[in-house]
Amino acid sequence: MKTSQRGFTLIEIMVAVAIVGILMAFAIPSYTEYVIRGRLSEAFTALGGAQPAAEQYWANNRSYAGFDAAAAFPAGTANFSYALTTATASTYTITATGSGKMAGFIYTIDQNGTHATTGSPTGWGTSASCWVDHKGGACSN
């Protein structure tokens, strides 16, 4: 009586491993960029929320100086720290600086609502008029 063996041949396993390797070569970089873009939204949300809070602070104090001590000023996180880099009676600039895995990203907003990307890792680009959120310097905001 003839017995048949079950299982995969070495060639079949090697082909499967090669296909998985090719798929991973495309998937991992795309996923990494997706995660970075998700973390960038943290800075965009904090800076966007700080602008009306700064206007409220100015309405109460007639100056932007000292806004960084206000309760409405964005608190630092594991990904970004926030600083009031310029503050006078009539102007301000709030800067979000990336830290940890987000190191190199630097975003600003001022009293006019001007968004700027003043620093970014290699390949991302900078802009004086928007927050860069895609490689190559593309902005969606």
UniProtKB/TrEMBL annotation:
Any Pfam family matching the protein: ComP_DUS
Biological source species: Pseudoduganella danionis
NCBIfam families assigned to the protein according to its UniProt record, in alphabetical order: IV_pilin_GFxxxE
Keyword Membrane: yes
Alphabetized UniProt keyword annotations: Membrane, Transmembrane, Transmembrane helix
Positions of transmembrane segments: 7-28
The protein's name in its UniProt record: Prepilin-type N-terminal cleavage/methylation domain-containing protein
